[in-house]
Amino acid sequence: MGDVVEVLAAAGPPGRGSPNLALSVLLALLSACAFAVSTVVQHRAATVAGQDLPQGAVLRLVGKLVRNKAWIGGQAAALAGFCLHAAALKFGPVVVVQPLLSGGLVISLALGALVDRRHPERLLPERGQWIAAGVVAVTLGLFVVSARPDHGGAYARPGPLLLCVGAAAAVMVLGAVWALRPRAAHKALVLGLGAGFGFGITGLLLKDVVAHPPGELLTSWTTYLLLASGAASITFAQWAYQSGQLIECLPVMAILEPLVAVGLAAPVYGERLAPGWLATTGQVVGVVGLVVGVAVLARRTAARDATGVPVAVPAPAPAPPPT
């Protein structure tokens, strides 16, 4: 991915290939790395801590994890990832930063394989996972190189932003109403849809919040929307994980988070992708390949690792079944 940064730094007219864009790419990749480290460390810590606990003993698991140095280190990595994510959005557009965070799936796979090689009893990634990871890496690079977006505005347009937040809130409310039905089908999938929309909106809000001077954060209404959106999204994600198999909800969340943010960046921030048939072809192929690669990778990873900590969500997973 280092070549991507070099291409971006040299490509396009002023305003499209600026040094700030290259910096935002670097920060987004570092953020993806930090979240990947957090995911792997917390996953392993939760797996070990939950071995002697009954299934569903989430509070007891959390009680053990908060005293676990490795898990605390994973939380620190997640915090670093969040700060790097915020910095990336400060210097670059949403349409570049948010898709790059999907690279955390690939990095998590590689880091997890390195750790698990030391434990013969653990399953290593299968060939299909590595192929999907390669597709994600290649198409992600293709999209970033061909996108070369205008940065748009630093602050969100209030009207479109509120409409987007309202739409996401409606999706989440409808998802909650559905999931509360005693015999509702596909609860995890529906809740995953709500979480995916919520995380996408959270990315949009974060860009506006980091554009404000520190002294204005407490008086900016987007700060409180960000806190509410983030809390609701994490709650829905955890609810989804507890309502069904990880394989049912993780792929839809992994796909929707970047797609929602990228799709709404134009009306909210005025960000525009590079024009021209060659650039557009690269963008379309990149997005389609990224969606397919992320879906396959998330689905295969979830199927082989049902007790894992959800990717890119730095929160403890439900206790795994005793072994």
From TrEMBL:
The chain crosses the membrane at residues 21-41, 70-89, 95-115, 127-147, 159-181, 188-206, 218-237, 249-270, 276-298. The keyword Transport does not apply. It comes from the Bacteria. Keywords: Membrane, Transmembrane, Transmembrane helix. This is Magnesium transporter NIPA. The lineage of its organism: Bacteria, Bacillati, Actinomycetota, Actinomycetes, Geodermatophilales.
